[in-house]
Design brief:
Helix content is 0%, strand content 50%. The chain has strands spanning 51-54, 57-58, 63-64, 70-73, 76-83, 86-94, 100-107, 117-121, 134-146, 151-174, 177-192, 197-208. The protein starts with 50 loop residues before the first strand and ends with a strand.
């Protein structure tokens, strides 16, 4: 989410066309969806995968280790491992007991907020679609089932984590007015670090849909 020049007009009163000729659709301030000032705040960081934070503060000081796909900062070592059908992240925590660690994933799911995109819990229940917020305590597994993608992304956490999922929208302007466009599913997994020497794990698996 970044600043667009037409965002400056969102807080103004409805415009009135003056002069001869037909008003351009982009000169009229109208809203297809409710839009608040918070909806147009630019993102301070790029929206990507595995954006870490500790006690609410973003971590941007990892340094590459000698071992490939491993990075570290004081008290925390982060490593990536490629799996046959996905990727595994490990965070080895030392001297961090009781602190709150979180990692955020931004996933551009093709179904967006359409009816073919849905969350599926480990027990098979479907709590909602990608366009609705979802909060789970002690979540050890979740699938993002996407009919347009033709498969699912399955996430598993060890130990179980707090999960907060919500749609990420940007604000665009069309002939219908200012509107929100869903760009991604934002997933935040968070843990209270249980001990001074422990490992947190998150796996992402790609599961193609079964063929008829």
């Amino acid at each position: 989410r970044y600043h667009e020049h037409y965002h400056d007009r969102i807080s103004t009163a409805p415009s009135q066309h003056q002069g001869d000729g037909i008003a351009s659709a982009h000169d009229i301030v109208r809203f297809k969806h409710p839009v608040s000032p918070e909806d147009i705040i630019p993102d301070p960081l790029p929206r990507s995968l595995f954006l870490d934070s500790l006690d609410g503060q973003s971590l941007g000081d990892y340094r590459a280790d000698v071992t490939p796909l491993c990075f570290s900062r004081p008290g925390l070592a982060k490593s990536y491992a490629l799996l046959e059908d996905g990727i595994e992240l490990r965070w080895h925590c030392q001297g961090q007991a009781g602190r709150r660690f979180a990692t955020r994933l931004n996933l551009a799911m093709p179904s967006c907020d359409g009816f073919l995109g849905r969350f599926v819990l480990a027990d098979g229940r479907v709590p909602c679609g990608f366009g609705q917020p979802l909060a789970l305590d002690d979540c050890s597994g979740l699938s993002l089932d996407d009919g347009v993608l033709g498969g699912a992304l399955r996430l598993s956490a060890c130990p179980g984590a707090r999960l907060d999922a919500r749609p990420h929208h940007t604000v665009s302007q069309s002939e219908a007015g200012f509107e929100k466009i869903m760009q991604a599913v934002e997933l935040t997994f968070s843990w209270t670090i249980p001990a001074d020497d422990c490992t947190l794990t998150l796996q992402l698996h790609i599961e193609p849909a079964a063929r008829a």
